[in-house]
């Protein structure tokens, strides 16, 4: 899981980074909102934002994030306990508001719930399954199917998009982590992943992008 952390308190940010990296999360740390703004397209699974930071405050950055992507969860961490500020944070689309000081365990728990989802296994057509936490694709006739790093990120993008259309732009931002690519490269990646899944699991959406057929649990 890849996380953008905006926090200018060095002691707290070091504690957060150490704890999350111990859980094998990738954490990109920023202490300036304007600098963080330039990185929000780099394929993050969650944004953890302090409000009072130099350059651009966390709420302003949150607004920009939600314009770009409504699906990626965000957590506000702040010593500000003013009710109006808390209301504004939720109004702008934050999923959780953690008041400082807090236990790092609280943040870890909220990240797990938001990003790993309650259901760790996603059911796909023809009895295929995808384990979100282990990032493993399973088919009924074999134990697991090996996925490349980009195939894993593409699977995770489909899962977090909850059956919505995943556009070429969002694939570029998330799977290529902000690096430029071409639609031809994206189509080639889709083709490779399709070969590892049942037919009609990934469906083209009229040139706009793709949608994954995720089955509801019984």
Describe this structure in words.
The chain is built from 8 helices and 12 strands. The chain has helices spanning 10-22, 33-37, 58-68, 83-91, 104-115, 149-160, 168-175, 183-195; strands at residues 2-6, 26-30, 46-50, 74-78, 96-99, 121-123, 129-131, 136-139, 142-145, 166-167, 202-204, 209-212. It has 2 domains: 2-115, Response regulator (Rossmann fold), CATH 3.40.50; 121-212, Winged helix-like DNA-binding domain superfamily/Winged helix DNA-binding domain (Arc Repressor Mutant, subunit A, Orthogonal Bundle). The strands form 3 sheets. It has a 5-stranded parallel sheet with strand order 2-1-3-4-5, sandwiched between helices. It has a 4-stranded antiparallel sheet with strand order 6-7-8-9, covered by helices on one side. A 3-stranded antiparallel sheet has the order 10-12-11.
Q: Determine the mean pLDDT.
A: 91
Structural class: alpha/beta
The dominant shape is globular
Named at the architecture level, the CATH assignment of the largest domain is 3-Layer(aba) Sandwich
């Amino acid at each position: 899981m890849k996380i953008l952390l905006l926090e200018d308190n060095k002691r707290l940010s070091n504690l957060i980074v150490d704890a999350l990296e111990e859980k094998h999360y990738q954490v990109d740390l920023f202490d300036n909102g304007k600098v963080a703004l330039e990185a929000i397209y780099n394929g993050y699974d969650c944004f953890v934002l302090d409000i009072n930071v130099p350059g651009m405050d966390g709420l302003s950055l949150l607004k920009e994030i939600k314009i770009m992507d409504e699906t990626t969860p965000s957590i506000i961490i702040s010593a500000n306990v003013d009710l109006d500020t808390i209301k504004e944070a939720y109004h702008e689309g934050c999923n959780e508001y953690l008041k400082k000081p807090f236990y790092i365990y609280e943040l870890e728990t909220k990240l797990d719930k938001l990003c790993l989802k309650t259901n760790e296994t996603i059911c796909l057509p023809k009895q295929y399954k995808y384990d979100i936490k282990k990032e493993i694709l399973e088919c009924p006739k074999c134990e697991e199917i090996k996925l490349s790093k980009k195939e894993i990120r593409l699977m995770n993008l489909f899962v977090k998009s909850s059956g919505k259309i995943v556009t070429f732009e969002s694939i570029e931002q998330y799977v290529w982590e902000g690096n430029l690519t071409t639609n031809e490269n994206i189509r080639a990646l889709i083709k490779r992943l399709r070969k590892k899944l049942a037919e009609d699991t990934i469906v083209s959406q009229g040139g706009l992008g793709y949608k994954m057929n995720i089955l509801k649990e019984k």
